[in-house]
Amino acid sequence: MNLLYVLLIPLFLSSCRADPLGNFCKENTNISSGSQISINIDLLLAEVVSNINLTGYVATSSGMETDRVYGLAQCRGDVSRKDCSSCIKDAAKEIRRRCPNQADARIWYDYCFLRYTQDDFVGQVDTSIGIFYFNVENVSDPQRFNKELGDLMDNIRSEAVIPKNKGLGKGKTERSPFVTLYALVQCTWDLPQIDCAQCLAIAVGNFPNFCDNRKGCRVLYSSCYVRYELYPFYFPLDSNNGTSHGKTKVIIHH
Ligand SMILES: *[C@@H]1O[C@H](CO)[C@@H](O)[C@H](O)[C@H]1NC(C)=O
Ligand SMILES: *[C@@H]1O[C@H](CO)[C@@H](O)[C@H](O)[C@H]1NC(C)=O
Ligand SMILES: *[C@@H]1O[C@H](CO)[C@@H](O)[C@H](O)[C@H]1NC(C)=O
Ligand SMILES: *[C@@H]1O[C@H](CO)[C@@H](O)[C@H](O)[C@H]1NC(C)=O
After folding, report:
1. How many other CB atoms are there within 10 angstroms of residue 219's CB atom?
2. First vs last Cα of the chain: how many Å apart?
3. For 13, 17, 87, 110, which has the most beta carbons within 10 A of its beta carbon?
4. What is the CB neighbour count within 10 angstroms for residue 180?
5. 173 contact partners, CB below 8 Å, separation of at least 6
6. pLDDT in tens, 30-45
7. Residues near ligand 3 with C-beta < 6 Å?
8. Other C-beta atoms within 10 Å of 109: how many?
C-alpha cells in the first residue's frame, strides 16, 4: 500500500453528527445524470432509506444487466434505529451531492456507511481505502497503554466474530478511577466471520502507522470500523467524566 495523499484537517469531535467523515468517488466510473444507471442509483438509494429501519442493514441491487447497481448500507450496531435512519437519509443525499457523476461511490459517517457500485462487491472484504482519524494528543504511558489497548482489542475482536453479535464488539478498560479506555469494532454483515476477523486484523495492524500512542483513533474501511477513545462514545453512553475530546486529524490511505 502506498500513501497517495494525506489530508490534515483539524476537526472537533463535537461537530455535527450529520457531517460525513469521508467519501470516495471512483474516477472513470462517470455517468450522466439522465442515464439508466443514474436512475437505478436513485431507486437503490430510495430502497435503502426506506428499508434501513428494519435491521440497520441493507444489501440490495437495482436494475438489470449492464445498468445494474449493487448497494450496501449499514449502521453501527449500537446506534438506535432513529439515529441510524437519519444517518442513512443524510448519507443517501450527501453521496449523490459529492459523487453526482460516478457509478462507484462510498460515504462514511460515524454512525453509518453507504456504498454502491456496478460490481457485486457484497460478501467481499475490502480494505482498499482507509480513513484514519486520530487524536493529535499522545498518551503519557505508551507501554502500558498499548498493552491495555491490545488486550481490549483482542477481546472485542473475538466478540465481533461470534455470529449472534453481528460483527459488533465493544468494551472498556478502567485505566484509573478517572480514566477509562473505550473501544468498538464493527464489521459489515455481509462478511463471513473469517473475513470480518481479517478486516479487523488489518485495521488494528495499522495502529502503529496511524494511531501510534494516540489518545484516540478511528479506522474506517468499507468492510469494518474500529475506534478507541479515552471517553465514552458508543451506546449506551457511559456518563462522561469530563475528559477532553481533543483535536483530531485525518489521513486517507489508498
Ligand atoms: C468525470 O466527471 C468529473 C466531474 O464529476 C470530471 O472532472 C472528470 O473529468 C470526468 N472524467 C471523465 C473520464 O470523463
Ligand atoms: C425509522 O424509525 C424512526 C424511529 O422509529 C422514525 O422516526 C423514522 O421516521 C423511520 N424512518 C423511516 C424511513 O421509516
Ligand atoms: C504525538 O506524537 C507524534 C509522533 O510521535 C508527534 O509528532 C506529535 O507532535 C505528538 N503530539 C503532541 C501533541 O505532542
Ligand atoms: C467516573 O469517575 C468515578 C470516580 O470519580 C468512577 O467511579 C467511574 O467509574 C468513572 N466513570 C467512567 C465512565 O470512567
Report:
1. 27
2. 7
3. 87
4. 17
5. 148, 151, 152, 180, 181
6. 999 899 999 999 999 9
7. 136-138
8. 23
Rounded to the nearest integer, the mean pLDDT of the chain is: 92
HSE-CB of 156 using CA atoms within 13 angstroms: 24
pLDDT at position 3: 43
Which residues does the chain have with pLDDT short of 70?
A: 1-18, 240-243
Give the model's pLDDT for residue 14. Answer: 39
Per-residue model confidence as pLDDT tens digits over 53-69: 999 999 999 999 999 99
CATH of 129-253, one of 3.30.310.40, 3.30.430.20, 3.40.50.11540, 1.10.10.10: 3.30.430.20
The number of the ligand 4 atom at minimal distance from the alpha carbon of 238 is: 13
101 CB within 6 A, ligand 1 = yes
pTM of the complete model? 0.89
Substitution site in 138, 146, 248, 249 for ligand 3 pocket (most atoms within 8 Å of beta carbon) = 138
Q: What's the topology of domain 15-117?
A: Killer Toxin P4; Chain A (3.30.430)
What does the block give as the cell for 58? 441493507
Q: How many Å lie between the centroid of ligand 2 and the Cα of residue 57?
A: 14
Which stretch of DSSP H or E encloses residue 135?
A: strand 130-135
> Which residue owns the Cα nearest ligand 4 atom 11?
241
